[in-house]
Input
Amino acid sequence: MSDGGPKPVRIGLLGRGNVGAAFADLVAERSAAVEAATGRSPEIAGVLTRSEGDFGAILERSDLVVELMGGTDPARQFVTDALRAGRPVVTANKQLLAQHGDELFGIAREAGVQLRFEAAVAAVIPIVRTIQESFGVTRIERVFGIVNGTTNFILSEMAASGAGYSEVLKEAQRLGYAEADPTDDVSGADAAAKMAILARLAFHTQVPLSEVAYEGIEAIRPDDLAYAKELGLSLKLLGVAERRDGGISVRVFPCFLYRGHPLAPIEGPFNAVMVEAPAINEVTMSGPGAGGLQTASAVLGDVVSILAGDAPVHETRTELPIVADVPSAFYLYLEVADQHGVLARIATVLGDHEVSVKSVVQRGIGEDARLVMVVHECLESRFAEAVAALGELDELRSAPRYIHVIEDEP
Ligand SMILES: NC(=O)c1ccc[n+]([C@@H]2O[C@H](COP(=O)([O-])OP(=O)(O)OC[C@H]3O[C@@H](n4cnc5c(N)ncnc54)[C@H](OP(=O)(O)O)[C@@H]3O)[C@@H](O)[C@H]2O)c1
Output
């Protein structure tokens, strides 16, 4: 500035919804702190919504662009244009990065500007920064956790109240923890996009979103949670990205955890992510995984990092194959005829497929007889074959139901 004062940093804000509006407020509120930390005072140079602003004009008068619109179109084009025009970009858009991250990181690299995205995964939990910077040269073995707060709220409520999925979903919508169309969250698709981003960072390899397998929580029944309690288990929707057989496996699925597991006590609309590596053992971070202010806070943190000149590297260094068939332990729920020898026949079928039983709970009599068991870790394909064989038994009154289990007991 001509008066010799600090030069402001002019921010072009794309989107002023939940996060964008909170970000604009936070910029005003924390302006002095940002200036103290970076020597530059932030100001909003222009805002784009569906009814306000012109992208070209905003870009022209901005030093840095913050994309908080969501979706891939037109966000992809705007982010591309901003990077090509030499503007660093901060975004909270997981779909944009999971689908077009490689392309956008390439454009950022060519343009020599930063593209930061801490808020795209687990909002305010600094997992992106931690993996990229603190563990940037650490050989990470596994990143996993609860990366969707909506589903964690629903599962926690179902376990606590015994209520069914649909009823609890309505409550989550009423409280603002689930959107009017909750499909992306409850199907596991939102978590899959976040895990694709984390896996790429952790393993320095491309992770096509189409190769991230996911299952949601729609089919979970209160029964499952009640039996699980008896077995000392609690249910979470987990995202898991890990090295396997020279490749990586990246998946999202409902999973039982034993009490004592670091993720078991994470209840309600919270997120928690664990990183495992020989050099660090295990690090767990937890906190709010969403919320306008919390997400905006992570976005402002990225703005400060850009002003501080810190530049993480986004190159993929290897091409690791995606491994689809991996070992897991399982919870298995069987509705059985109350006949002599039924447990033995089931055990035989499991044994024939080299699936071994860790614990069994037997409940009900007559038409209501059920067996709930946990089986030890085995290849998923082998377990699927065993389940198919069980499904052929006359003694079963309905198709077997199963859910993953992480076997580590405290
Ligand atoms: N909400 C959270 O807790 C949270 C957490 C982590 C990450 N995120 C991510 O943050 C981003 C923003 O989320 P949000 O909850 O703030 O969304 P939102 O409330 O729906 O706000 C979206 C904003 O973008 C504008 N917009 C959307 N499409 C546009 C278009 N084609 N042209 C111009 N403006 C457009 C909207 O304009 P109008 O105002 O005119 O509709 C609105 O101002 C998303 O990528 C989301 O995944 C959100």
About this structure: Residues 15-20, 48-51, 68-70, 74, 92-94, 119, 123, 290-292, 295 surround NAP (CB under 6 Å).
